[in-house]
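Thread: Glucose 1-dehydrogenase, structure

OP (GT): Posting the sequence first so everyone is looking at the same thing. Length is 261 residues per the record. Can we get the C-alpha cells written out before standup tomorrow? I want them in the notebook alongside the other entries.
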Amino acid sequence: MTPLAGKVALVTGAGRGIGRGIAMHLAMLGARLVLTSRTAAELDDLVAGIAAAGGMAVGVAGSVSEPAAADAMVDAAHDAFGRLDILVNNAGIVEDAAFLDITIESWRRVIDTNLTGCFLMTQRAARRMKDHGGGSIVNIASIDAQGYDGPQASYVASKAGVIGLTRDAATALAPFGIRVNSVSPGWVRTRMIEDFLTPDQLDYMLHRFERVPMRRLVEIDEVAAAVAFLASDAAAAITGIDIPVDGGTLATLNVYETLPR
C-alpha cells in the first residue's frame, strides 16, 4: 500500500535523526520528497539512499530561519514536482545553559531555528498549497513544551511556541483546505541518545524505563508513523491538534512506582 503515492512532501532537518527517519518513512509510503538540511553531504547520502530504494527525492541545503532560504526550499518542490502537498517542520536545535547564563545570541539561535523557521516554512508552503487545493503541515514539537527537562529554556519556549503556532495556523488556513497539526516526541532512541548514554543506561531506557508507562524509549519509526498519518488523507478531518508520541509519559504524574524499592 502506498497511501502517499502522488504526494509531494518537504521535510526540513532531514539529514539525521528523526528527520531522516520521517523522510525515509514518507518515501516508503510513496511520497516524492524535497529534503532540507544545513549540511549538503547528509542530504546527498539520504537522496541517494531513497533513489536506490526506488523513491524520488531532491535535496536543498540551507537554514529555515532565513526567509530567502525558506523561499528556495518551497520553490524547489514546485520546480522539481510541480506542487507541494505535505510539509514536515522538523528542523530544530537545542543549546544547554543554566537559565541565568543564557545569552541573547544563544536564545535567538534556538528561537530563530525552531520557531521562526517553522513560521517561515509554514507561511511559504501554505501560499503554494492553497493554489493546489490544500495540503497538510505537520510540525515537530516536543513533550518538553510542557515543562522543564534540563537547562534548555530556549528549547522549551520554542517548542511551546510551535504548538501555539500550530493551533493558530490550523484555524487561519482551514478555509484554504490546509490542515496543520503537530507531533510531540518523548524520549526517542536516536544516535545522539545512544552516544550520550552508557551501555547500562541505554539498556535501562530500552527495557525498564520506569518513568515511562510503556517502559521504553520511543523508536524513530513510531514518530514517523504518526507524522505520516497526520499527513495522509486518513486524517482529513483532523487539524489543530498535538499528538504526543511518548509512551505515555505525559499521561501520568505518578512517581511512587519509580522510587527505590
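GT: Both are above now. Quick notes for whoever picks this up: The mean pLDDT is 95. The chain is about 45% helix and 15% strand.
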